[in-house]
Amino acid sequence: MSNKEIAKTFQFLGDIMELYGENPFKIRSYQNAYLTLRKLDRPLAEMEATEIAAIKGVGQAIAEKIRELLDTGKMSTLQQYLDKTPDGVQEMLRIKGFGPKKIKVIWEEMGIETIGELLYAVNENRLLELKGFGEKTQNELRQQLQYFLKSRNQFHFASLEAEGQDILQKLQTALPGVKVEFTGAFRRHANILESIDILVGSTAGLDAQLEALGLQNWQVQADHCSGSSSNEYPVRIFQCSAADFGSKQFKYSAAPVFMQAFLEQNPGQDFRDIAEETEIFKKAGLPFIPAELREEPWAIVQAKTTGVPTLLETTDIKGVVHTHSTYSDGLNTLSEMAEYSKQLGYEYLVISDHSKAAFYANGLQPERVLSQMEEIDALNKTLAPFRIFKGIECDILNDGSLDYTEDILAKFEVVIASVHTNLRMDEAKATQRVIKAVENPYTRILGHPTGRLLLSRQGYPLDHQKVIDACAANGVAIELNASPYRLDVDWTWIPYALEKGVMISINPDAHSKQGIHDIHYGVLSARKGGLTAAQCLNAKGVNNFVMWIESRTQ
Ligand SMILES: [Zn+2]
Ligand SMILES: [Zn+2]
């Protein structure tokens, strides 16, 4: 063990003890040990115990800990703290420039225990109410967290999208006349990715182009080369001849189970050396199946029987549903949210601030609900024909009931019911709780059904089939939360929802004007499940939307 590693262990010990509010003098002595040990010019591993203890600022107790570290690779004092500290909180301590004081507040006051939850809280402006967290701190923290997550080699689609587009365009420009396209899971718009994958229809060397792009650390693998982008995201470049492009693009783009089903349906067929991907489908006697549907075998069955659906487009979305304003935890005012939505060409906005139980998000007490409704009435007069709907993101309480009395619930035009607290439930409890909320006559949309945060929180287990059945029976729509960190309901449940006639609503859950653009990610995910405009709730124009929300009360 090097001096540097030993020094860092003491630094970490000091930090973790500060988290528990331990004796400041002890903490100081470990911080000093860190400073002393890292500057030492002789390896501690080669020194006698007495020599170590004689180092200025070390002393007997610290010398013993160094010895223990050198002999066993561990330090029992530190281990005690590690045992009672969640892994995610330990990770937070390792993030540069963050520090135990702030982590203590976040962990104790907000119960946040993973980096992903923390990133999500930052994106929802949750930290602004805490002492010591201004907007600047929050933005710095966001960058540090994103950087941290990057180092784990799994990424939200949204993290790689812009970088991928940039590399693709530059390669296309650098290689005129050569086909250059996204491939792999990236082309399928998978929610979670490991790399940006690109297929180049030329076997000529690419060294010069890759260097010009600032791509680094290239390694040649069996059928591709891999490296990292200038922002250190993993990139894989596959190459093939132009004559083989269609075959290779088909091969790399398909998920394994899809490919298996496809080949089983076409025994003995040779799909090699085909330049155009469309020719492969012709040869198989199938209509063209878009890449994002090449996940599961049902897409092949569907293509054969009813044909490939015309998938939902972002331009099909007519209204912005599920948004927050400064009334609860949004960054922009109600009128800013409405004007921006109107400016983007949407016909309506469903404002849905948090309900009163969400005290951490400044949830609305009944009197604030009423004053917001007055403001909506006034704004609707000036913004017409654009319309703001009086909505609420109403907490589903622990017993499945909603967070307001009936007289208040009856005043809302759109109630989105969501679970935000007591997320640790088994499947039976969670399913029962959610179904009870779905059966509530005021509920119109079930918000983020599992509460998951991609790459950081699994969400509670849910019997999706039962919940979807309940939505069908009660005329409730299911949200596909379009935040790229949620994408909840999972797209794999869309086919079942559609089979049951349940509408899917693509909801940005926007906590700022910019957040509205997340609709894009919701649409990409919904397409994977075969969603069409006809079955998407907020693809309805304003009049049809009104008819739909009123249909339950009649
Ligand atoms: Zn929510
Ligand atoms: Zn929300």
Which descriptor suits the 3D outline?
globular
List the bound ligands. Answer: zinc ion
Number of helices: 24
* Number of separate strands: 14
CATH topology term of the largest domain = TIM Barrel
- What is the alpha-carbon Rg in Å? 27 Å
CATH class assignment of the largest domain: Alpha Beta
What CATH architecture of the largest domain do you see? Alpha-Beta Barrel
Straight-line N-to-C gap: 73 Å
Largest sheet strand order: 8-9-10-11-12-13-14
CATH homologous superfamily (4th level) name of the largest domain:
Metal-dependent hydrolases
Set out the fold topology:
Elements: H1 3-19, H2 24-39, H3 49-54, H4 59-72, H5 76-83, H6 87-93, H7 100-110, H8 115-123, H9 135-150, E1 155-156, H10 157-174, E2 180-182, H11 184-187, E3 192-193, E4 196-200, H12 207-212, E5 216-220, E6 224-228, E7 234-239, H13 245-253, H14 256-265, H15 277-283, H16 298-305, E8 319-323, H17 334-343, E9 348-351, H18 366-383, E10 387-395, H19 406-409, E11 414-418, H20 427-439, E12 445-446, H21 464-474, E13 477-481, H22 494-499, E14 504-507, H23 519-528, H24 542-551
One zinc ion binds next to loops.
